[in-house]
User: What shape does this take?
Amino acid sequence: MHNNSLQDNGSSQNRDGHQPNIIAVANQKGGVGKTTTAINLATALAAIGKKVLIIDLDPQGNASTGFGIDRSKRKLSSYELITGEADIAAVLAPTAVPGLYIIPSTIDLSGADTELVTMSRRAYRLRDTLEFDPSLGNFDYVLIDCPPSLSLLTLNALTLAQSVLVPLQCEFFALEGLSLLLRTIERVKSTYNGSLAISGVVLTMFDKRNRLSDQVAKDVRGYLGDVVFKTVIPRNVRVSEAPSHGKPALLYDHRCSGSQAYMRLASEILKRERKAKAA
Assistant: This one.
């Protein structure tokens, strides 16, 4: 078990008596900035004083690598959560960011989809393990980095989450892939998780010199309206370099345009939350 400063408080509610906000970061298309968004949004939320847990549910384990968690040190992982062999406290690892913890991914997760097919309550494995885990109550936010596919792992994340954040690359086929994902979210809502909502769509890899980026942004906003966040994540070399150094962009270079954009996104999410609570 990792030694960390979080202590169980005996309930799955957090310090204010509320459930943590559980957000699945999902898009079945790879290369859209999904993991980059999960890493840097989690870091930005921690930077403004929130207690954050990131669950790496992608067998590639890029979120874990992006926080500098060495593969050889990942003894227990999100795989043990899915199979019910371990609880949060057993698999939790601290990161270099104060207030931010991660449940890493290992290669074991790559076989989980096949194993889940034969398990009872296969869509609810993650929820069944975490729902009454007292450690969950220590966090304000739980971000789940989903695999780039509409797999049973993604289904488990969507069944647990309260909302889905969709990173969308500003490219020609963006809307085509998005409509498939939105249909999947609706199916999950009607079959497995009636309270699932869309937290928002965030446009990523925006290149202001490229007219196509502008056109895609207009099309997506025209299609989805206010579901799309005002904050746009630009293409940024420093954000791309950061994972190879095992650091979130906000630690690698907090002044770069990408880091600043993720701070704005965190603020926008908090504003939306406050507005929803007031409504």
